[in-house]
Input
Amino acid sequence: MSDSVLIKNPYYLQNGATNLKYPEIYYKLIYQNLDYNPYPTKGYAGEIALFKQGFNSKMNVWQLAVKGQGNWHLGPKTFYNISAIGSIKVPFKQPYYNSQLLGYSDMNLRGYESYVIDGVAGGLVNATIFKQLANFSINLPVLKKYTSSLIPLKIYGKVYGNMGYAHNPQPWRAC
Amino acid sequence: MLYGGGFGLDIFTDYDFTLKLEFSFNQLGQNGLYLHKKTLY
Output
């Protein structure tokens, strides 16, 4: 890491370090009982993961991350989805490098796409109502050399709301 | 606590790819049109 980064943020890594190498181990349990994994409209899915990053004072994180979602049919081609994601890292005293939360990875809070929000504990809940508006195929002969020239498309309209929270006991470390 | 919402379209192909067009807003009065690739969560 460049020294200039450390001047801007002395808390970027633990103890003012400029380089970092660490091992990571994790155990993850995944449950999926969905009608169609790429675009579920019915069923449940969940995930729980325990991460351990580093084993010394430069890097020492225990992280528990959980995800869950449910999908239900509301009516003809109309569906409802609720999903939630949460994460906690201990100890809470972490450098900036370990404080990524909302806006990173799967933690997308809609309405806050232009932001990232740091923290060591937090999560979000999403609710979406969606309805299939169209289901058709378009013919693209240019693709025939590689695959079927018929490209199936489904279009869904949706409305959604979400809320999220990030706990950051050391916000000055993001300066 | 942070709140947001919006509406949009999901364009899904049978090749496991979904393009999401979303108009989102937040409690700060900010809004915008965003493009995403759908993930499971």
Summary: Residues 3-8 of chain A form the longest helix (6 residues). Helices of chain A lie at 3-8.
